């Protein structure tokens, strides 16, 4: 759980890609498809606003640090995910031999990724952050090639190159805009690292997803990761005037924790189960667009024309990089 990670994530925006290769893409049609599509339509709005909410919480008027906001988020998320596990999962067991891998996986995809993702948003613009984290499918493909999980494919590699061109335009196309933080280059590099980490989630989650439900894995890795995240930022969280910080910051905390971290993730995987991974994945392309528009209207971020072109090119590259269906190599 991102976003967008994007996960996280909440799952943050990149978490959306984790099941595409591992769950059925053509499930039997059901009567509630229309309702499923309507619920899915809320997910890009929620994940797109993640970037705005974090920017508001980082502002001097509110005073959250990265560790503090993550600590607050995970206190709320653990309670919610615990309830989901208690009432939504009949079988909550994990085989003894899988715990070592699960704990290591949790440390990387939650304990490390969440800090990298949140720090990147702090240092760059909301628009650039949302676009860069959405490149996770590109890194999934490249990691899969390196690990010999997939064969080389020219069409997908062309998509990777197109995506990288778009990223370059976004990063270096700010033109000294006053609305772009001076630290945006550092923040952009950190967001690229976050996208790589989130892409690794899709690759290295395969052994676990082959044995357990997605909701069970996500609940466990976030609960395990919270053991690292909550203590690190707990004192800094208490230093924030929580009782007097106002309605908007509290709504941002709840949005980042419950809506983006729990609700959107449940809806997303319900979409995968009901209408298929391919149809569900289409909604990921709206996340950066929502973030760009919301950042312009709320935060007054003004992307240059070169950056807008870069966003369009990057999304096209991401689509090409994950569009082709390439048979995996024998394991």
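-> sequence recovered:
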């Amino acid at each position: 759980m991102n976003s967008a990670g994007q996960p996280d994530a909440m799952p943050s925006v990149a978490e959306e890609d984790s099941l595409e290769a591992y769950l059925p893409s053509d499930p039997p049609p059901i009567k509630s498809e229309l309702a499923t599509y309507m619920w899915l339509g809320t997910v890009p709005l929620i994940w797109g606003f993640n970037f705005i909410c974090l920017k508001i919480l980082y502002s001097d008027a509110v005073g959250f640090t990265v560790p503090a906001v993550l600590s607050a988020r995970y206190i709320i998320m653990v309670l919610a995910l615990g309830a989901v596990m208690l009432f939504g999962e009949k079988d909550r067991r994990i085989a003894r031999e899988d715990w070592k891998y699960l704990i290591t996986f949790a440390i990387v995809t939650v304990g490390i990724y969440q800090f990298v993702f949140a720090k990147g948003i702090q240092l760059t613009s909301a628009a650039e952050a949302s676009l860069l984290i959405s490149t996770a499918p590109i890194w999934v493909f490249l990691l899969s090639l390196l690990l010999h999980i997939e064969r080389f494919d020219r069409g997908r590699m062309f998509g990777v190159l197109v995506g990288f061109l778009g990223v370059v335009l976004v990063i270096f196309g700010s033109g000294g805009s006053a609305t772009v933080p001076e630290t945006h280059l550092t923040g952009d590099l950190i967001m690229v690292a976050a996208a790589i980490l989130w892409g690794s989630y899709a690759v290295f989650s395969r052994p676990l997803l082959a044995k357990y439900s997605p909701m069970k894995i996500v609940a466990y890795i976030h609960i395990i990761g919270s053991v690292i995240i909550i203590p690190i930022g707990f004192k800094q969280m208490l230093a924030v005037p929580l009782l007097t910080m106002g309605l908007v910051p509290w709504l941002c905390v709840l949005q980042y924790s419950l809506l983006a971290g729990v609700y959107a993730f449940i809806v997303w995987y319900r979409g995968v189960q009901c209408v298929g991974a391919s149809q569900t994945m289409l909604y990921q392309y709206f996340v950066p667009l929502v973030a760009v528009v919301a950042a312009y209207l709320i935060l007054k971020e003004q992307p240059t024309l070169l950056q807008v072109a870069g966003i369009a090119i990057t999304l096209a590259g991401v689509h090409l990089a994950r569009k082709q269906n390439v048979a995996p190599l024998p394991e």
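DSSP finds 14 helices and no strands in the chain.
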